[in-house]
Amino acid sequence: MEATGSYYEEAAFFLSQQKLRLSVVLPNRSNAYAKSLGLKSRNDKVDAAMLARMGVEKRLDEWKAPSEVMMKIKRLCRERRGYMHYKTMINNRKHARSHTYKPDPNSLERADGLLTLVDAQIKAIEAELKTRYKSDQALAGKVDQICSIPGIAMLTALAILEETNGFNLFRKKGQLVSFSGYDVKTKQSGTSVNERARISKQENSFTRAALFFPAITAVKYCPHLQKAYERI
Question: What does the alpha-carbon distance between residue 22 and residue 131 come to, in Å, rounded to a whole number?
Answer without folding.
Answer: 31
